[in-house]
Amino acid sequence: MRIFHKKNGGIVQLIDKKKLQEWPVELPLIFIEYIREKQLDKYGDNNLKKEISAYLEEILKDVAIPRLISVLEGSDIEESILALTRIEEISKKNVEMAKPIKPFLDNLLKSDNKDIKNLTQSIIKNFEKAERRKELAKKRKIMKEKEEQFLAGKISNEEYAKARKEYLTLKE
Predict the structure, then answer these.
(1) Does residue 16 contact residue 1 with C-beta atoms inside 8 Å?
(2) pTM greater than 0.90 (yes/no)
(3) pLDDT by residue for the chain (172 residues), tens digit each?
(4) Which residues of 34-68 are buried (b: 16+ CB within 10 A; e: fewer)?
(5) Given CA atoms 139, 142, 144, 146 in this order, what sign does their dihedral have?
(6) Nearest-CA neighbor of 24 among 89, 117, 112?
(7) I want to staple 6 with a disulfide (CB 3.0 to 4.6 A). Which of 10, 13, 97, 156 is the partner?
């Protein structure tokens, strides 16, 4: 265990790098992303956050990335397929957790193995769908504001129609 001390006397315990090496290949990346996204802000103390962020970067460079590369670019096709299958499942449920894996997907598209290519394409599609959902959410928010402005008489019919057309074009 790696222990970090809080100002108030409390501690934060994170798993040691050696233990992380025993985990399935995608889990260290998910662990890092989870701590960054869900836990880091809860710690409050900026020095503690910096220490934990530095440790997470250390895990990323020393354990997570090298293991992922060795499995995905390794000669054991079955292990690569198994790892990609788990990554695909994660990307379906929460694409943000699979985000650290994204840079390595382009190389896998060049693979000769059909299963690896298909899984990689599926993961990439999950990223694209998530990006599209984010864009739609932004446009939906803008459209709602335009609707309120139109109903209040602050914008013309033409402006509202133009905004509505842009929104509907993106939605398709």
Answers:
(1) yes
(2) no
(3) 899 888 888 888 999 988 988 888 888 888 888 898 888 888 878 888 999 999 999 998 888 888 888 887 778 888 888 888 988 988 898 888 788 788 888 888 888 889 989 999 999 999 999 998 888 888 889 889 989 998 998 988 888 888 888 888 876 6
(4) ebbeeebeebebeebbebbeebbeebbeebbbebb
(5) negative
(6) 89
(7) 10
CA angle 22, 26, 29 (to 5 degrees): 95
CA angle 45, 50, 54 (to 5 degrees): 150
C-alpha to C-alpha distances, 125 to 43, 96, 102, 128, nearest whole angstrom:
34, 13, 11, 5
Which residue matches tokens 């993961």?
123
CA-to-CA distance for 27 and 44, rounded, in angstroms? 26
Separation between Cα atoms, residue 141 and residue 143, nearest integer Å = 5
What's the token pair of residue 142?
Answer: 């803008």
